[in-house]
Amino acid sequence: MAGEEEEKNNHAAEVAYARLVSHFSHHHRTTNDNTREDDQVVARMHSLSQVLEEFTGPVERRTVGVRSVVCIAKKLIERGGDEENNVEKRHFGYSILQRLLISSAKTSSEEEEIFMKNEFTNIISNELRLTSRDGAKVPYPLKSKVAQITAEFIKREGSTAWIAFSETIARMLRSADAYECELGAIIARYVAEDVALHSDEVFADKVRDLLGGITQTIGEVTGAMREAWERHFSNNNVGAPEMQKASENCALAVLEAISVYAEWAPLVPLVRSGLVDICCVALLVRLLISLLISRFSLLALLPMMMHNFWINHLNIHREDKLYKNILYV
């Protein structure tokens, strides 16, 4: 009986996956009728929204089981194939996983809880490794989705998951690779932002537990942030333009994470980590640059101002002379 049920679920998953893949294949065909093309896009987005609701909506409305949904999402996020279609397909797969984490948090059975924890631990570990490896090939929307899924899983599982992943996040922040470091900073920001600043969105019984876990590892994470900012802020004018841009994005992501921690974290670990010092240095550098720019701007305008003054001065004398000549005529 269990075998028949599993076979039925597998068949339903295969049918649902085939239906989904058809939405991401050859949908960029051009047509002379713009209205018809817009209608096709709207119909396609409506169909995808329906599928998302069937997969991750309330339990009574779901047409596919949790195991099958996870299996479908894992197929969607696989790399390879046409790049443009693959990006959209992977983004939708990540959206399924994210919505599943949120919607299943209060309704999962004990068996599903164990399955979700094991599956998502493996998925997230694999995605963090692959996303860091691929670097510039990964568009920001996909990178952001990976970070959001990681944050949602940590919020769902509590301090145990955060402490387990904090070592990975600290290692990513200390990485010399700007893309890997940026991903680590985004994850650290999302977790702290949701738990410390938007705690209403986290289940009440998890807030205190998560805050305790984040506070426990704050020294390690903030120390890694300081190292990351120093490294990539100093590298943003070195190397190829592509690497300069990557370092700039990484330094900005780290500063955004620091600003979130500064909203709630105790002052002592922030001072010990050196974050306060580097923020003061950053503000001082910005002030000096602003003063230099202002000074050079005035110096650049000075010749033009003098030139205009002398022209106007001569014109004044000419006008006076002309006025006197008129008087004496």
Rg value: 29 Å
Principal-axes geometry comes out as: globular
Strand content range: under 5%
Distance between the termini: 122 Å
The number of helices is 13
* Major sheet size, sense and barrel closure: none
The figure for the number of domains is 2
Q: Which class do the helix and strand fractions yield?
A: mainly alpha
The percentage helix is over 70%
Mean pLDDT: 77
The low-confidence parts are 313-329
Could you give the order of the helices and strands?
Answer: HHHHHHHHHHHHH
In total, the number of strands is 0
Question: Could you give the topology of this structure?
Answer:
Elements: H1 2-23, H2 34-56, H3 66-76, H4 83-103, H5 110-134, H6 140-157, H7 159-173, H8 178-197, H9 204-216, H10 218-234, H11 241-264, H12 267-273, H13 275-328
Helix pairs in contact: 1-3, 3-4, 3-5, 4-6, 5-6, 5-8, 6-7, 6-8, 7-8, 7-9, 7-10, 8-10, 8-11, 10-11, 10-12
Summarize the structure.
With 329 residues, the chain is mainly α.
Describe the structure.
This protein is mainly alpha-helical and 329 residues long. The protein folds into 2 domains: 1-27 and 39-107, no CATH class; 110-273. The chain has helices at residues 2-23, 34-56, 66-76, 83-103, 110-134, 140-157, 159-173, 178-197, 204-216, 218-234, 241-264, 267-273, 275-328. Helix 5 runs antiparallel to helix 6 (140-157).
